[in-house]
Amino acid sequence: MATARHRLNRDLLFVGVPAVLVVVVATGLTLFLMRPAPPSEIVMSTGAADGTYHATATRYRDILARDGVTLRLWPSSGAVENLQRLSDPAAAVDVALVQGGIVSAAPPDSTKGLVSLGSVYNEILWVFHRGDRALDQLPPLNGKMIAIGDANSGTAALAMTMLEATGIARPPTTILKVGGKAAQNLLISGNIDAAFFVASPQSPIVQDLLSRSGIHLVSFRRADAYVRRYFYLRKFILPQGVFDLARNLPEHDVTLLGTTANLVVKDDLHPALAYLLLRAAAEVHHSPTTFSDLRAFPAANDTELPLSPEAARYYKSGPPLLQRYLPYWGANLVDRLLVLVVPALVILIPAGRLLPQLYRWRVRSRIYRWYATLKEVELELEERRTPEELEQILERLESLDDAVHRIETPLAYSENLYSFRQHIDLVRQRTQLAIRKTALSTTSEESRQQGTAS
Fold it and tell me: What is the three-class DSSP state of 293?
């Protein structure tokens, strides 16, 4: 009995060990190729601490914190520096807002490895100047003192592009790299003649300057020409009275220029974090504004960088199925488990069908290999007819039957053993019949010979 159990254990090991090895190798390979878990902290370059970029990044930070992800904010001078930090591996920046046109002006090599999650809102250019009347183009500012925004800011880059296009970027025009609140104060105090700002219509700077007498907003009469020359620019109409119907601010329609802010990330950002940032952008920017409709942002258009694969799927089909119904950590956990479970099922399901067959073959093979011996005996039975030879065949069948009887076979496969012994018995009966016929023939022959002799 112990020997039989030993043989059965060997059969199980013969089948089970290779199967376990295949599963272990497949699981190890899957773990090796599988992306690691998303980090719990990422860094965002934000722009000036009192600017729109930083305010937007703060809202992103609060939304990501709900899912246990820390968004660390790193203030900068603006969009140009944001792009520089993203391109610099030593800076360790994962995401930033970049103004339209900045990527096109940068060297092509500096944007390798960067992708866009889409445009998230319009960035409007506001040019305020001191004077008796409002201007409708920039050339009259030639020779004036103009603040164009902080160095390395998107405002300064866009302002220089427009001043150079109109031929007033050189002396006698004086260019000051000052922006934000400082530029606002200089313009109000009369220390400068004009200032460029890139801000939302609700910006306190814009609202304050629009309401001051002696300070006017430039309306770009040649906006269509700028849009034709610079693909990243858009034309916007600020309707009369949109800010204050009672005071009629502004007093007439104003034609403005602007671009879009893009949410730019490194192409190796974990997909789960990319989807989380897109969800945050949708929550922050879905509301209508003075220049955009409800749910106009985030959007897949106006991106100078290629869309990330996650963004392309998001704009086509929405958030992944798991993230629609599960919290961030739960969706990520299930997603990682599926990466392990699916390949395992691909192996285990066929193996679950193959292994019983392999085990059945292993057990039956100990019986089936004796069929060759039985067939050989049966062929000898057809060729040999002497009594001595038939007796030898009968002895071999008895030995074969005894050997087969000793084969260790699980109870579930016993029918194969008994079926084979029936086949042995069938050949035995034929042999015994042949022996009787031979004996009868011999007796008849002897009787005939005796009768002839008489």
Answer: coil
Residue with tokens 């899912």: 67
Among 262, 231, 329, CA closest to 86: 262
d(CA 185, CA 181) in angstroms, rounded, equals 6
Degrees to nearest 5, angle at CA 260 with 203 and 81: 85
User: Cα(13)–Cα(364) distance, rounded to whole angstroms?
Assistant: 16
pTM to 2 decimal places? 0.71
DSSP structure class, residue 47:
E
pLDDT in tens, 293-323: 998 999 999 889 999 999 999 999 888 877 8
Where do the H-state alpha helices sit in 34-120? Answer: 52-65, 79-87, 102-105
Which residues partner with 196 through β-bridges? 127
Contact 60, 277 (CB under 8 A): yes
Residue keyed to tokens 């798991």: 322
DSSP string, 85-96: HHH-GGG---EE
Residue 33: Cβ-neighbour burial (10 angstroms; 0-12, 13-18, 19+): exposed
Instruction: Determine how many CB atoms are found less than 10 A away from the CB of residue 160.
Output: 17
What are the backbone angles phi and psi of residue 98, rounded to the nearest 5°? -130, 130
The gap between the terminal CA atoms of the chain, to the nearest Å, is: 66
pLDDT tens sequence across 259-289: 999 999 999 999 889 999 999 999 999 999 9
Domain range annotation of the chain: 41-338, 369-453
Q: Is residue 261 within 8 Å of residue 100, measured between CB atoms? A: yes
Structural tokens at position 201: 């219509």
Give the residue carrying structure tokens 């992306």. Answer: 35
Listed in sequence order, the residues at least 6 apart from 75 whose beta carbon sits closer than 8 Å to its beta carbon are: 46, 47, 48, 49, 54
User: What does the alpha-carbon distance between residue 221 and residue 239 come to, in Å, rounded to a whole number?
Assistant: 15
User: CA-to-CA distance for 231 and 366, rounded, in angstroms?
Assistant: 80
The CATH code that applies to domain 41-338 is 3.40.190.10
Taking only the tens place, the pLDDT of each residue in 12-42 is: 555 566 666 766 666 666 655 556 678 899 9
419 pLDDT tier (thresholds 50, 70, 90): confident
